[in-house]
Design brief:
single chain, alpha+beta, Immunoglobulin-like, Cytochrome Bc1 Complex, Chain D, domain 2, 3 domains, 5-stranded mixed beta sheet, 9 helices, about 40% helix, elongated, disordered N terminus, binds dinuclear copper ion
């Protein structure tokens, strides 16, 4: 560089100072912007705050690295660019610089080691059981294309097509899949884990008291045609409301299971009450998915959005047509919905009496 036959390049000490000043200003602006952006939805679990802090630390650590690399590249491109008349010149010979190489290997290694350690500490921290030892267990089962939730409350076991949680309490989700890999994600809680056939995966969430309200549940693993529709809602209630809900579920589930069980095929249509119960909760024994997991129907109080809204969809359909829609869902499809999303096994998982009863009840209540 110092040789007289080539133009002197580089900026010397003053140039380096210039780069440092620009780098510091750009880093400060970048960090300020990174922290000002609202990256995530509401933070409604005790895990969410720690994860958000981890994110902020990663932003603070990565912006200066990005700025350093960018500034050096931009200055190098400007200072060492080829000028007219230099087309046939070789650059000065370059040899390795051991000290520089040691520095640029050691600093990133230390940085990564530090960030990994911190992330590991956060991970073990959010996986810890709550200090109180009080924890609810909810078994989450994914299947194309809905989630169901199994509870054990007050000695009663029941399952629900809707996720209800009490505010201010801790819950451990045990996540399973009946078919392919899904991913159980509640963005407001920040937590997300794959539902893998054949194994149980788990995560815990400490629902914060202010979380009362509705939170999206999303499937975050491409799992088939209905993946985009595999969305449900987590309803966070006050502890008193939750216990009232759980008490109602526990009582209602027992008679319906009996009414819907195998061995009753010969009997006539099930009653309207039994049909409603079947619509809301499905039948665990035979594997019949709850209709309400995917369909909105105000008469049943369900809010699923995977399939057509039955308050609108079957307003004028006669029972016979509804029956076909249940047993052969792909025969005629409401526009906007794809084939293969609704389970096609209701002919096997429901008895004739259950299908007849459901169709009869839906003819009465749907679209009203
Ligand atoms: Cu289930 Cu995507």
């Amino acid at each position: 560089m110092e040789r007289g036959d080539t133009t002197t390049r580089g900026r010397g000490r003053r140039g380096v100072m210039q780069m440092v000043v620009i780098g510091v200003i750009a880093s400060a602006l970048g960090i300020a912007l990174g922290l000002a952006i609202n990256w995530f939805p509401a933070a409604d679990s005790t895990q969410a705050d720690k994860i958000d802090t981890l994110w902020d630390v990663l932003v603070i650590a990565s912006v200066p690295v990005f700025v350093l690399v960018s500034v050096v590249i931009i200055f190098a491109v400007i200072d060492f660019r080829m000028r007219p008349g230099e087309e046939h010149l070789d650059g000065p010979p370059i040899h390795g610089n051991t000290r520089l190489e040691v520095i640029w290997t050691a600093i990133p290694a230390l940085l990564i080691l530090g960030l990994c350690t911190y992330a590991y500490v956060v991970l073990t921290d959010i996986e810890d059981a709550p200090a109180s030892g009080q924890e609810r267990r909810v078994v989450v089962t994914g299947q194309q294309f809905t989630w169901t939730f199994a509870y054990a409350e007050g000695g009663r076991r029941f399952s629900s097509s809707q996720l209800y949680l009490p505010a201010g309490e801790s819950v451990k989700f045990v996540v399973r899949s009946k078919d392919v890999i899904h991913d159980f994600w509640i963005p407001d809680f920040r937590m997300k884990i794959d539902a893998v056939p054949g194994i149980d995966t788990t995560y815990r969430v400490g629902v914060v008291p202010r979380a009362v309200g509705d939170h999206d549940i999303v499937c975050a693993e491409l799992c088939g045609l209905g993946h985009a529709y595999m969305r449900q809602t987590a309803h966070v209630l006050s502890p008193a409301d939750f216990r009232a809900w759980a008490a109602r579920q526990g009582r209602a589930a027992t008679p319906a299971a009996g009414a819907g069980g195998a061995g009753q095929q010969a009997s006539g249509p099930i009653s309207a009450d039994q049909a409603k119960e079947l619509f809301v909760a499905g039948n665990q024994q035979t594997g019949a998915t709850a209709c309400g997991a995917c369909h909105t129907l105000s008469a049943a109080g369900t809010t699923g959005t995977t399939g057509p809204n039955l308050d609108e969809g079957v307003a004028d359909a006669p029972a016979a047509e509804i029956k076909t829609s249940i047993v052969k869902p792909d025969a005629e499809i409401t526009q906007r919905y794809a084939k293969g999303i609704m389970p096609s096994n209701f002919g096997q998982t429901l008895s004739a009496g259950q299908v007849d009863g459901l169709a009869k009840w839906l003819e009465e209540v749907a679209g009203k």
